[in-house]
Design goal:
Elements lengths: L4 E10 L9 E9 L3 E6 L5 H8 L7 E6 L2 E2 L5 H8 E4 L12 H11 L4 H14 L15 H13 L5 E5 L7 H18 L2 E5 L3 H4 L4 E6 L2 E6 L1 H5 L2 H6 L8 H9 L10 H14 L5 E2 L16 E10 L7 E11 L4 E6 L5 H8 L28 E4 L2 E2 L7 H7 E4 L12 H12 L5 H14 L4 H4 L9 H13 L5 E5 L7 H17 L3 E5 L3 H7 L2 E6 L2 E7 H4 L3 H6 L6 H10 L3 E2 L6 H12 L5
Parallel strand pairs: 3-8, 3-9, 6-7, 7-8, 11-22, 14-19, 14-20, 17-18, 18-19
Antiparallel strand pairs: 1-2, 1-4, 4-5, 9-10, 12-13, 12-15, 15-16, 20-21
Length: 606
Amino acid sequence: MTEEPIIECCNVGFSYPEAETKALNNVTFSVKRGEFLSVIGHNGSGKSTLARILNGLLEVDEGEVRVLGMKVSEGKNAIEVRKHVGIVFQNPDNQMVASIVEDDVAFGPENIGVEREEIGRRIDWALAAVGMEKFRKSTPARLSGGQKQRIAVAGVLAIKPDVLVLDESTAMLDPRGRREVIEVVRRLNKEEGMTVILITHFMEEALLADRTLVMNRGEIVLEGSPESVFENGETLETYNLALPRISSIIAPLRKAGMNIENVLRPEELAAQIIENLNEKGIYSAQSSPFVPAVRECAHEWDVDVENLSYTYSKKSPFASKALSGVSLHIDDGEFFGIIGHTGSGKSTLIQHFNALLKLPQAQKHFKKPKAKKGKPAPVLPSLTIGKFDLSDKKCDFKALRANVGMVLQYPEYQLFAETVFADVAFGLKNFNPKLSEAEVEQAVKNSIEIVGLDYEDIKDKSPFDLSGGQKRRVAIAGVIVTKPHILILDEPAAGLDPKGKREIMELLHKLHGEWCNTIIIVSHDMDEVAENCTRSCIISEGKVFACDYTANLFKRADELFSLGLDVPLTAKIAMELGRKGIIVESDCTTADFAARVAGIYGGENA
C-alpha cells in the first residue's frame, strides 16, 4: 500500500434542501490507494451522503473532494470519477436497470466502452464472485432482496473500479452471502490493490478494515484502527453506537472475578475463559442443562400451515418454485423466528399469512384439479390463522389483514402518502371507516409515539424525506395503529445502527407484552433470533428444514453452516469451549450464557 491518497476530502459540507441541519459538516480525511477503510455511525450520521459525494452523485456545498487528483465538482470530472469509484447502495433496487441479470451486470462496462468479449468475461467473473452464476438468465424482479443485493455488487465489480464503496451492501444478505461478498472484497483489496470503503453497521465487518472512521451528526468524531476505536466503549454509546456483542459477555465475566482482556473474536474469548478456568483447576465441566420454559396459551390465534407450495411466474420461462410442501405450526402468543438462506422462501411464506399471496383455491377462477388416471388426487394446501380459513374464497381478507399486520423487508415500499400522518392513518381509516377524525388523530399520535418518534415534529413531513431508521418506524406505526393480533416483520432491524436495532426489538417486546398476541420475525441475524425468539424454524430450498426451540436449533451448527447460515456468538464460543471439555448449555442469549460460564468459574457444576 503506497502513501499516495486516492481520495481527499477537505472541509466538506453538504445540506439537503430545506433541511435544518447539515448532512455533512467540515468533513476532512483522505484514503490511501489500496487502503481498506470502514465507516460506522448511527442512522442519519451522514455516511450515505458521504458515499454519494465521493463519486459525484451529490455536489458539495463547501470544501473540496478530489479523486485521483481530479476535483470532482469541476467540469465533467464527475463522469470520469464514476469510472474509478463504484458504489453499491443499501437498497439494490436503486441500481437495477435491466430485465435480465446478465444485462444488468453488463450495463456498467457497456457504458464505459469495454469491448464485448471482455464484458462477457467480466460478467462471468462478477457473478461467480458473488455466487450468482445460476441466476444469469433470471429476471431481477423475481429475486429475493438478498439475491438482488448480490447482483448489485456484481454490477459494480464488473466495472473493475479503483475504489469500491459499499453502503450497507451486506445488510440484506444471509450469513453465507455476507461472508462471500466480504471475502470477495477482501481479496480484491489484498490481491488486486482495490481501495475499499465499507459503510456498515456490522461491527465484525468493521474489524476487517485497516482503519475506521466514526461519524456523528455529519462529522467525523473518531478515527483510528478498529481495535483502538472499539476501546472507546462509553464514547461510542454517546454516538448511538454500541460495542460488538462480545463486550456484553465480557463485562459479567469480569464481574464474576475472571481476568478477561478486551477481545473482539469468539475464539479469543473462549481461550481466555479456558485459561481462567484452568488456573482454578477446572479442566472439564458441564453447566446445568437448558430446559425450555413451558408456555400456556389460549390457541385463539394459532397459525397452521399444511402442504403449502408456491411457484412464481408459473407456466412461463421464468418459473421459479419458492415453496414446496411447507407445513408449520405457530402457537398463539409466541415470539417466533423464521431463518433461512437468501431465496429460501421465507418472505414468500409470510406473505401468505395475510393473503398478499393467496392459496390457489382462494383465488377467483380456481378449479379443483382432477386426479390423473392411476394416481391420487392432488393434496391442496391449507392455511388457518385463528378463525380465518385462508383457503376459503369467502374468507374476510380485509378483516384478516386488520388482525395480521405485516412490515415488509424494505419499509419504503409500503410508504406512499404525502405526509407521515396520512400514511399511518391510511390502514386505520380503511379498516375502521366509522372512526371520527379525533379518534383517528389520537390513534395515529399514539402509534407514532409508541415507535419512538416525535408526533408534532414528524406528522407533517413526507415519509420519503426520512432516514432509513425513521422509515422503518413509520412503516411499523402504520401497521400497529390497528392493533393487530399478529405482527409479522421481514428483517425488522436490517440496515439499522446498533441502537436502532436494540430499540426496534425492545419496541416489539413491549407490544408483545401489552396487546399483540404473536410476533413473527424473519431475520438473517442469528444473534437477533437467539436473543428474542423462544422458538424458530429454518426454511431451506422452499421447505421447513427444522422447527424447534431456538437454542436447540443452534446446537446443530454444522447443519446450519451447510445451509449457508450461521450460529450466534454464544454458540460459537460454546463450540470452542466444548472442544476443551467445557460444556455450556444455555438459551443462547448473552446474559444466560455469561451467567452459566460464571457459574462454572464459581464452582457450580464444575
